[in-house]
UniProtKB/TrEMBL annotation:
Residues 374-489 form the Beta-galactosidase 1-like first all-beta domain. The active site is at residues 157, 239. Belongs to the glycosyl hydrolase 35 family. It catalyses: Hydrolysis of terminal non-reducing beta-D-galactose residues in beta-D-galactosides. PROSITE patterns: GLYCOSYL_HYDROL_F35. InterPro entries: B-gal_1-like, BetaGal1-like_ABD1, BetaGal_gal-bd, Galactose-bd-like_sf, GH, Gly_Hdrlase_35_cat, Glyco_hydro_35_CS, Glycoside_Hdrlase_35. This is Beta-galactosidase. Residues 9-329 form the Glycoside hydrolase 35 catalytic domain. GO terms for molecular function: beta-galactosidase activity. Coiled coil: none annotated. One of its GO terms (biological process) is carbohydrate metabolic process. Residues 510-568 form the Beta-galactosidase galactose-binding domain. Its EC number is 3.2.1.23. It comes from Enterococcus ureilyticus.
Length: 592
């Protein structure tokens, strides 16, 4: 049985080891991609792989757990061991990771006033129930049980959020109670305030840092902090940022490979590191995160390429070879090899075979929930995707004021089926003047609200704005309207199968477009979205994620595992009134 200890150095079976690790998120790629990604990490010269475990992916509905397919963390860890890698797991309930709500499930927000990441008994009870399912799955994977897992994380960057040591202590105790035996750690930025607030060093929990430059200076900060607490632990950067994430309507961020290699070399000279990210992957479905900037929430894009050492689709970059060389210079005895390459396919152009308006089929796709006042997305559904609110307003046959109060994130307003306004960020809640038809005594109001992503970092985690949909109400004139029908639109398999493409088509309304196509061969590919507006694309039931014409990326990556030889069905949900007539595949991503 192998052993792993943290003393003045990391010790594997009593022998010093420098941890050279890379982050690969099993949930941001298909299981068939895991092997190539893990092999390329080992070929880089690494001996360890690190991954987060997102709570909201495994328990998207409270009490219902899913560890299948790309959610099979156990299979990922076992494959890493087979390839010869040690594993660092980060099962903390909060992960950040530019992931929806930092990994926290949306259903937590049903508890009004709940204090997240705290000893609030309501929160800790939810954590306990989740850990009672998750941790027993991880226990057999520990080094102490013959597995490859050498460390697990208690909490992530907690010092950038809170300072409640009892919360950290209760989380640690819960993990140990459920069978965690390998060393535990916390990871925070490399400055005194967050290290003081976010660590459990006084209880012997290892302290790791997160940074991506100024290696020697940050390592010195970490060393001084440990020394002040009587520890002589090795220095480890748990997130050595080799690139960065991207947001909609902002330029893609790049980092020079030679510059990174120089910094990596300096870091390896003073300690161990985990490259974040080694392979970024994709934010499939509705799981992209969101940045908080003042009053604005700025959602991140579907691609999590991260300008990492492997591209979103797994191709080694120039940066890969720079870092590989740097590792060899510091650690000449490491095993290295040529990485595996990736082939991409252009699968041609295929026409749209049918289209239908959402407003025409809302009642066949799902049964409306009826209430006097509007429900939030979490109250009426799973809290992800979209919510359509429908109501009948009295028609006073003259101009009338309309105002949506306390809504998030992006609102599209339709009066008698005609688009009146799109409100987002600065314009949310602006008053409108509307007119009804001269022939009808009532006005049909439809409001489509999109959750563009909950914040994954910072002070807004406990903000009311993270509860999506309409929280306040809709005002006509100066009174709140009463009487709503709710249609939670998650694009589940059940909902997609219920789409009636023989119903009325109206490209000016939010619409579904169906493409039925026959493929003689499949391959990793991209869908060109440059002529679309905003929406999502579902391939054979798999939600590839969001596209948006504001850029900076105008394509969606589609792994070959989502396609099949023979007949394929693709459904595009387009919200901007842009008529789609065809789908175009490409063998390369498309940027602005």
């Amino acid at each position: 049985m192998q052993t792993f200890e943290i003393k003045e150095e990391f010790l594997l079976d009593g022998q010093p080891i420098k941890l050279i690790s890379g982050a690969i998120h099993y949930f941001r790629m298909t299981p068939n991609q895991w092997e190539d990604s893990l092999y390329n990490l080992k070929a880089l010269g690494a001996n360890t792989v690190e991954t987060y475990i997102p709570w909201n992916l495994h328990e998207s509905i409270e009490g219902e757990y899913d560890f299948s397919g790309l959610k099979d963390v156990e299979a990922f860890v076992k494959l890493a061991q087979k390839i010869g890698l040690l594993v660092i797991l980060r099962p903390s309930v909060y992960i950040c990771a530019e992931w929806e709500f930092g990994g926290l499930p949306a259903w937590l927000l049903k508890e009004k006033g709940i204090r997240l990441r705290s000893t609030d008994p309501r929160f800790m009870e939810k954590v306990r129930q989740y850990f009672k399912v998750l941790i027993p799955r991880l226990v057999p994977l520990q080094l102490t049980h013959g597995g490859p897992v050498i460390m697990m994380q208690v909490e992530n960057e907690y010092g950038s959020y809170g300072m409640e040591k009892e919360y950290l202590r209760q989380t640690k105790q819960l993990m140990e109670e459920l069978g965690v035996e390998v060393p535990l750690f916390t990871a925070d930025g490399a400055w005194e305030e967050v290290l003081d607030a976010g660590t459990l060093i006084e209880e012997g929990i290892f302290v790791a840092g997160n940074f991506g430059s100024h290696s020697k200076e940050n390592a010195e900060v970490m060393k001084k902090f440990m020394t002040r607490h009587g520890k002589k632990w090795p220095i480890m950067c748990m997130e050595y940022w080799d690139g960065w994430f991207n947001r909609w309507n902002e330029p893609i961020i790049k980092r020079d490979g030679a510059d990174l290699a120089t910094e990596v070399k300096e870091m390896l000279e003073v300690g161990s590191l985990n490259l974040y990210m080694f392979h970024g992957g994709t934010n499939f479905g509705f799981y992209n995160g969101c940045s908080a900037r003042g009053a604005l929430d700025l959602p991140q894009i579907t691609s999590y390429d991260y300008d990492a050492l492997l591209t979103e689709w797994g191709e080694p970059t120039d940066k890969y070879y720079h870092v590989q060389k740097a590792i060899k210079e510091v650690c000449p005895d490491v095993w290295q090899a040529e990485p595996r390459k990736k082939e991409l396919a252009n699968l041609g152009i295929h026409p749209v075979t049918a289209s239908v308006s959402l407003l025409a089929i809302k009642d066949t796709m799902m049964k409306a929930q009826k209430t006097m006042y509007p429900l939030s997305m979490e109250e009426a559904g799973e809290g992800y995707g979209y919510m359509l609110y429908s109501a009948k307003l009295n028609n006073y046959f003259h101009e009338n004021k309309l105002k949506i109060v306390e809504a998030n994130d992006r609102v599209q307003i339709y009066i008698d089926g005609k688009h009146q306004a799109t409100q987002y960020q600065a314009t949310l809640g602006e008053e409108l003047v509307v007119n009804g038809s001269k022939e009808q005594t009532q006005i049909q109001l439809d409001v489509l609200v999109e959750n563009v992503g909950r914040v994954n970092y910072g002070f807004k985690l406990n903000s009311p704005t993270q509860s999506k949909g309409i929280r306040g109400g809709i005002m006509q004139d100066i009174h709140f309207h009463q009487g709503y029908e709710h249609y939670p639109l998650t694009l589940s398999e059940t909902q997609l199968q219920a789409i009636d493409f023989t119903a009325q088509s109206n490209p000016l309304q939010p619409s579904f477009y169906q493409i039925e196509m026959v493929l003689e061969y499949v391959g990793d590919t991209f869908i060109d979205c440059s002529n679309y507006g905003k929406g999502v694309i579902v391939v054979n039931g798999m939600n590839l994620g969001r596209y948006w014409n504001v850029g900076p990326v105008h394509s969606l990556y589609c792994p070959k595992e989502f396609l099949k030889n023979g007949t394929n069905e693709i459904i595009i949900f387009e919200t901007e009134g842009k008529e789609i007539t065809e789908i175009v595949f490409s063998d390369r991503p498309i940027y602005q």
